[in-house]
Amino acid sequence: MAVVVIFAYLGTMLWSVRLSFSSSRLLPKDDFVGFAQYTRLFETSRWITSLENLAIIAFFFLLICFVLGTLLAIFIDQNVRAESLFRTVFLYPYAMSFVVAGLIWQWILNPDLGIQATMRDLGFPNFVLDWTVNPDKVLYAIILATVWHGSGLVMALILAGLRGIDTQIWSATRIDGIPPWRVYLSIILPMLRPMIITSLVLLSISIVKMYDVVVAMTNGGPGTASEVPAKFIMDNLFERANIGLATAASTVLLITVLLIMVPVLYSQYFRKNGRAS
């Protein structure tokens, strides 16, 4: 089993990296062209646009998901009625695939079918909600859909951490007269560091490989206004028959994921094990 895993994952990964240094197009080639594909990649305006779009989506997605998910977890942790119902409602979007989430929000934000059409039918002819067809706002439509999809994950992880907090901490802070918001910022959240890191890593990886929700909502449009790296890779791999350029772009994404994962794994596992020994 270990051999299969190594061959299926590590082997294909290294093979893809090798192809990024070749002139492969429709079929793989065994030649070597150095960094020519990478040079061409970063000279392609569509790739640069996709990176810029991904940076904007990642910033707002991570920030809003973390804040919203944490607030939802704190809300549920107050022993509210129908807690199971709230947990289910908030976590349910994450159980859907990105394709389903994208299709739902594509319909909601569709100017001819969704909220805009409904409001105009109700007597508000000047109401405008055209985010999916507006180049200046389309990224915010994608951010809205992804936050709706991912904030439940943060809520679940933070809530699990909150349920493990010793109640004596709260008793002591009440005696000292510390405001609840200060307790959360100064005491509780630092104690939830493993949950916070886990949620941010999972969300970051989902952003790096984001493809389904973009295709379902906008297909990268209008124009290239919502283009993302994963879609750039898939288009060059299957539609434009440019294996070399596609694997160069996928290698850049691989390096990005490694830059996220390696420091986290080191701080969470290797450094702890070194201290323990």
UniProtKB/TrEMBL annotation:
Topology of this chain in the membrane: Multi-pass membrane protein
Annotated transmembrane regions: 54-76, 88-108, 138-162, 183-208, 243-266
Compartment(s): Cell membrane
InterPro entries membership: ABC_transporter_permease, MetI-like, MetI-like_sf
A GO term from the CC aspect: plasma membrane
Positions of the ABC transmembrane type-1 domain: 51-264
Top-rank lineage group of the source organism: Bacteria
The keyword Transport is annotated on this UniProt entry: yes
Keywords on record: Cell membrane, Membrane, Transmembrane, Transmembrane helix, Transport
CDD domains: TM_PBP2
Principal location listed in the UniProt entry: membrane
A GO biological-process term: transmembrane transport
Signal peptide: none
Keyword match Transcription regulation: no
Family the entry assigns: Belongs to the binding-protein-dependent transport system permease family.
Protein name according to UniProt: Sugar ABC transporter permease
Organism expressing this protein natively: Martelella lutilitoris
